[in-house]
Amino acid sequence: MYAILPNGYLMNSCCEPKFADNCRIATAYKDGCQAQIMKFLENNFKIIGGIAVAAGVAEVAAIALIVVAVKVKSNNGGIEIMSVTSFAIGVAVLVALVAFFGCCGAVKESSCMLTTYAAILITLFIIQVVLGVIAFVAVKNGDKQLKDLISTQLNELYQNKQKSGNQETIDTLQKGLECCGTTGPSDPLAYNSTTGALLNSCCKAETACTIANSYSHGCIEKLEDFLPTYFKAIGGIAIGFSVIELVAALFACYVKKTSKY
């Protein structure tokens, strides 16, 4: 149905530029906007699916940043570090699974694969929206709880720095955030328990590290500033990418319903 104006002409945008000033049914585009949009989406379904998968990869990378590639948890007087390799393998399997069902479903014209692909994306959409909301709420309402958790975990980490892997984690943390000890270079935990010297990672130049040339801020303070900002970023990323995944899932359902699949 054409969008005819009261003067009997069509809207200028319904015709090519050369006919815009005298746009009539005879010179107007033949297809409606809905048909053109559906045709575009159907023809570009694979690209949209690829964008959804890429968005998932980017989101996982962002989440990996917020956990700083390691998960620290209490373990009866010690610290246990979850293997980064295990985390990476799990992520790779999930991304490969989603990509497999989306790409193969379109190429092989498989109704089952397209349905599975859509179901996975819708599930991820729901999870990501929930996680995004939780991230925003946690930053808004759980500030004290977050600070207490940071303080407890970092103190435990520094107190057990002689355990395997903990010193490397501390060095990575101090270099990345440019901090020293839990509260600053005056913190006794910022010193090597064997030599009594300040940890080398407390300074930008790791040779002859002293209080005079060390980072002045403690890691608790730095993390308290760092994490809320990135929780907000992760919340926004999760919700933003979830919209892309929902759109891709709806297109998968549309293609399945309207084609020979």
From TrEMBL:
Entry keyword Transmembrane helix: yes
One GO term describing the cellular component: plasma membrane
Name of the molecule in the record: Uncharacterized protein
Subcellular location: Membrane
Main localization category: membrane
Membrane topology: Multi-pass membrane protein
InterPro entries tied to this protein: Tetraspanin/Peripherin, Tetraspanin_EC2_sf
Parts of the chain that traverse the membrane: 47-69, 81-107, 114-139, 233-255
Record carries keyword Transmembrane helix: yes
Keywords: Membrane, Transmembrane, Transmembrane helix
